[in-house]
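Why do we care about 3D structure at all? Because function follows from shape, and shape follows, mostly, from sequence. That is the central idea of this module. The next example makes it concrete: a single protein chain, its amino acid sequence, and then its structure expressed as tokens.
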Amino acid sequence: MILHESAEMYLETIHVLSQEQEMVRAVDIASRMGFSKPTISEWMHKLVDGGYVQIDGSSITLTESGLEVATKIYERHTVLEDFLKKLGVQAEVAEEDACRIEHYISDETFEAIKRHSETL
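And the structure:
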């Protein structure tokens, strides 16, 4: 399964929720992302089939490969958001822009921004 922005967003959301609460359920993902539970259910099945998510009863967890992708995307998000804020971008705009950029930026460019951000 080739992961596109939508799949990465689901994995990142599961990752963030798992850091905030003991168990992640479809209703939690739906609430956080603003999508219907049937939409979440459809995506969870796709991610299970792709080997990125496991479902045990109502509990949703990331597999090793799912966690790898989610961690990468979450790091990109946090570094980019922080970098944009350091540039003077308003917090809300920085968060929204980081959310879009994180899926399309090359590894090389991200690493350069990350290094530069550490010097600011």
